[in-house]
Amino acid sequence: MKALLEFQDHLQKSRRIVALVGAGLSVSSGLPTYRGTQGLWKNFNMIDLATPDAFYIDPGLVWQFYSWRRFNALKAKPNKGHQAVSQLAQIKGNDYITITQNVDGLQSRSGHPKHNLYEIHGSLFELKCTSFTCNYTDRDNFTNPLTPALADTEYEYDSKRKRRDLDTDQSISPQFRPVKELAELDLPSCPACNELLRPGVVWFGESLLLLVIDQIDNFIEEDHVDLVLVIGTSGTVYPANSYVDRIKLKGGKVAVFNTDIDQDVLEGKVSNTWGFKGDAAETLPLALKPLLEKNPASTTI
Ligand SMILES: [Zn+2]
Question: Which positions are annotated as binding NAD(+) (predicted)?
């Protein structure tokens, strides 16, 4: 309680704020984390599918995987945590940025202004041309499916074609859908040059988007940041940790909202750092409440 009041007092006094959002916030909207897991999709390791090599070898397979992820992200709804972040972004305007590691578009869909939102791993709803000579990009493309051939590929199991063996028993089990073999012609193509489009996400083995990283660096360097909110991530993995460290070094304070928090932080042993353990979708709106209530802003889903 003491930590909460201290945090809220500092929040009200803070002019420039950075929020770092990780996968934990989207878990509360029902989306699993993919990075760093051994998750399987149709018996493929998800991490093996999220690479430039996988796309080069079999773009049809990788597009089916992303079609499934787009479908799940579209089904999910932004939660109270996303909404609180978006409200804060509206209130603080140019004195604020959100850096999200999530590609699911939920932060954007919760009413976050575009100008102070940085999706450092890209977005499932961005399409990019694969040609080196073409810079076509399509943002906020929520079409599902993207092509007729990708229809239904987002389902791992077929619930329509239920197996009904009425002679023996009444049990109904959905059938596993194998991956379709799709030709390049059946996949999303660039309206400018006709080459293949790819998902606008940062794959394993690819570097983060330089322009975005530059803009974040500029925000952190140009003036003192008073507070960094670390939401749904421990903040100890690159690049989140580097932002936290740089802001702290210049005298900024840190507040972590996550299910997993360092014990020393929880016990108040780490200087200028507060830790609020629990589901960030619940704890963050409560912690930000005094500021958000003073500045009611509209949110849309
Ligand atoms: Zn193109």
Answer: 101-104, 232-234, 280
